Amino acid sequence: MDETAEELDQLQHLLDASITRAGAHLRSIITPGERTLTARQLVDSLRGMCVLSVATVTAAGEPRISAVDGHFFHARWVFSTSRSSVKARHLLERPQVSAAHLRGEELGVFTHGTATLLNPADRPPDPQWPAVLEHLTGHYGVSALEWGDIVAYQLVPHWMVAYSGTMT
User: Fold this and answer.
1) Is residue 153 a contact partner of residue 78, using CB atoms and an 8 Å limit?
2) How far apart are CA 88 and CA 15, in angstroms?
3) Which domains are present in the chain?
4) Element spanning 4, H or E
5) Tens of pLDDT along 95-154?
6) Residue 72 neighbours by CB under 8 Å, 6+ apart
7) How far apart are CA 79 and CA 98, in angstroms?
8) How far apart are CA 68 and CA 109, in angstroms?
9) Taking the CB of the first residue and of the last residue of the chain, which one, N or C, has fewer CB atoms within 10 A?
């Protein structure tokens, strides 16, 4: 586990605050204390690569969704794409995103937040970039930078809920 005690506390606060702010319909499905996960349970459930559906928005306000390799690293989603991709252009212009990771009916993690670029071309990288690159390299066995002109993002969440049909 890469998360610190402080990161787990912050994640737990986010999960608790998010389910409290959720609508009645969502709370009837993701029953607090019954079908929710603690921060520790969530982190343990999201080991390794998780297919993450990331939704961006075009300049005309049209939604676009695509799948990426998601890694839950230090209690936040991290993902990458080609610097020349449409998704990268959307994120540069409008970094607000929604993301979902689903495993049938057993697990659902829904996140809204801001995608922050970890390795921009026009300025020094984010201080977390070296650790993220090391994590990705450890997972894939090769540096993501060898795949081409790759950009990596960290999804800084302002809302996140986690549903478990079987894990609580």
Assistant:
1) yes
2) 27
3) 5-164 (2.30.110.10)
4) none
5) 999 999 999 989 999 999 999 999 999 999 999 999 999 999 999 999 988 888 999 999
6) 42, 43, 46, 47, 50, 78
7) 13
8) 15
9) N
